[in-house]
Amino acid sequence: MKRKSPWLLKTLSGAIGAAFSLVSSLALAIEPFVVKDIRVDGLQRTEVGTVFSYLPVKIGETFTDEKAASAIRALFATGFFKDVKIEAQNGVLIIIVDERPAVGAVELSGVKEFDKEQLKKALADNGLSEGRIFDRSVLDRAEQELKRQYLSRGLLNAQVTTTVAPLERNRVAITISVVEGESTKIAEMRIVGNKAFTEKQLLDQFNLTIPTWISWYTKTDQYAKEKLTADLETLKSFYLDRGFFEFGIESSQVSISPDKSGVFLSVVINEGEPFNVGDLKFAGDMLGREDALRSFLNLKTGDSFSGKKLSDSIKKMQDYLGELGYAFANISPIPQVDREKRVVGFTFAVDPGRRAYVRRISIAGNQRTRDEVIRRELRQFEASWYDSDRIRLSRDRVERLGFFKEVQLETKPVPDAPDQVDLLINVVEKPANSLTFGIGFSSAENVSVNFGVNQENFLGTGRNVNLKLNTSKANRALSVGYFEPYLTDNGVSRGFDISTSRLNARELGLGSYSQRTSAIGLKFGIPYTEIDRVVFGLGYENIRLDTDALSPRRLQEFVTQFGPKASALVGSVAWSRDSRDNPLVPSKGRLQTASLEIALPGFEQRFYRASYIDQSYYPINKDFTLGFYGDIAVGRGMAGKPFPVFKNYFAGGIGSVRTYETNSLGPRDPNGVDSQGAPNRLQGSIELMFPLPGTGNDKTLRGFLFLDGGNVFASKFELGQLRYATGLGVGWQSPLGPMKLSYGFPIKREPTDKLQRFQFQIGTGF
What is the pLDDT of residue 509? Predict the structure, then answer.
């Protein structure tokens, strides 16, 4: 006999009790009478006016059995009362109620896997919150749902218990206690029925894994039904992309060890046979554009069938029709299978639907960022024809702001308006504030303090404000910066920065000199395409040197040329083009930057500096990306004056030529201790980026192999003087910012080169 669940028994019991009370009340027939007064007994929290509003009779009216039955039904229907009785005494109608208790408090204990505030909000949305009428069936459902959520997270040993304690004024306190226990790990994974590929090849397609050294971070060894479903879809795609058109998954079995410590997965598959592509035809309303649609076909007759090429072809054709305004174009591939010849052909049935325009664009999820910051990046406008290409561009531009972890655009049809759609932009914000604070101690500088605040999205306006302070016995620096990305509606930007610093080299034992530098700069950026921008700048800087006979020679020469104080007014122009798919974890696209700085006449320093940087990324497959980086820069003095040593370029370090100590390459000071930099720089890198074993498709933690080369040169580029290194490393998009660690091996080095095999960097350097 099937056992009834407790909540069902309680619901039936409550319903029977209510019906019994109703029948009992009606069984005592009431003689009709004129109501002189109405009295309500038993109320503790409910207002008497609430009861009066549900009664079908008022003072002065005649009360009958029919009205009594109607009153009892109405009061029971409110859900406020467990019992309702009606009596009459000398023309006074007496309503006797027994209130249901209200929820006085909801407490959660032992919950670590979920955010408590989010969990309380979910309970409130389902009727379980302070002030609501207590319903045991709602609590029981919440308990069962919480258990299911723990199961979905792989916590099969989680225990959820609920207690209800009475409080004063007919209230109850609800406590949901959880003992989460340990996560259940996947002990074994098997695939049965495979012939064309090894079990290891197939399991490599899964995100779920048996425990690995990195599982503590990726949690890929924790079973969840949703994860398994996604992996089975990936497995199906793997076979379809290799021609197995009739591949099928016959069963997926999940068993749990008796102590619930391990999960055993077994997937039974039927590979079928590989198919080639047959005839490809079109049918339906093609808007007279069959040739254009056919040009988007990646499949070719006679090739091995590929599910990915089929889906990519359909998507390209739908995107093409979307650019023409057909938001809901449908293209259905109808297969014609010849199993004897192992050939599958397709007829693409085209249904463009009606051309649509965008009625409204809504934005959700931006709790801090203002709507206008997002809207000004959009290239699809309200009351304009739907254009899928402009929608994609809008999404890319919002992502490039760098304010959001996730950006999704959803197209919704407008009810009763087949030619209209609404766009919903959902964003997930990431922290916009970056705060750094550090205290250090060394024998040379004693105590040093550094502090920095960077607000990328100041007050949700999209502006950038930053403040940096460093202070020690030998070094002091203060800088303030501000950037306004939309000075005008068409995207002209403006930024300025002010900085001052002091270096006492005597305290560090680097030489007998001190240096003070003050600078202020202003820049304007002008976009002229969706991915191109030109930036014009003007800056003033002043350098003051205090030297003596023991100072480094290059600084003595500087004072001889310019005196102890030298200033410059520097004009600059820069061009950039950014087509990368993601600025932090790119897998395709290119970033190019060219810049020119010129010290203008009328000041002590006269020079120019020019540079070009190119970063390109090419996806090899879904896991591996190949990146190329190149950097060439030159500097020259003007008007008969030398190039200032403070403008020299440097090389070496994790942002340049790894394995060599930071800024250590190139010509050395006559003391032979440190590199003094040089006016010319040439460097480049090749990186092969890939997911770490056990991390699945997580791109926030990736490994890389690198080959670096570069150096700085005093007069002309000498390729024979380039230094090379190779090695491997790890990149991580950590909560503190992008991090890179590398360990390298020099390929070509000189005895005087300084090595630093292990290097670490926080930032966005290549």
Answer: 57
Burial class (CB in 10 A: 0-12, 13-18, 19+), 13: exposed
d(CA 405, CA 60): 66
Look at residue 673 and tell me whether its pLDDT is greater than 60.
Answer: no
β-pair partners for 684: 630, 709
Q: Look at strands 262-270 and 248-256 and give their pairing.
A: antiparallel
Between strands 37-41 and 276-284, the pairing is unpaired
- Residue 443, C-beta contacts closer than 8 angstroms, at least 6 positions apart: none
According to the model, what pLDDT value does residue 450 have?
59
- Could you count the other beta carbons within 10 Å of the beta carbon of residue 29? 9
DSSP readout, 172-236? EEEEEEEE--PPPEEEEEEEES--SS-HHHHHTT-S--S--TTHHHH-TTB--HHHHHHHHHHHH
Task: Give the whole-angstrom CA distance, residue 516 versus residue 120.
Answer: 57
Compute the distance between CA of residue 621 and CA of residue 544 in angstroms, rounded to an integer.
54
What's the CA gap between 218 and 212, in Å, rounded? 9
Average pLDDT for 506-524: 80
Residue 331's nearest CA partner among 306, 310, 351 is 351
Name the more confident of 612 and 76.
Answer: 612
DSSP three-state, residue 158: coil
**Which tens digit of pLDDT belongs to each residue from 210-255?**
888 777 777 788 888 888 899 999 999 999 999 999 999 999 988 8
pTM metric for this prediction:
0.61
Distance (Å, rounded) from C-alpha 87 to C-alpha 33? 12
Which residues, in sequence order, are CB contacts of 22 under 8 Å at separation 6+? 69, 72, 73, 76, 84
pLDDT at 511: 63
Q: How far apart are CA 236 and CA 246, in angstroms?
A: 10
Say which residue the tokens 């199906």 belong to: 236
- Torsions phi, psi of 597, nearest 5? -120, 135
Cα separations in angstroms, 630 against 127, 166, 299, 594: 60, 72, 37, 12
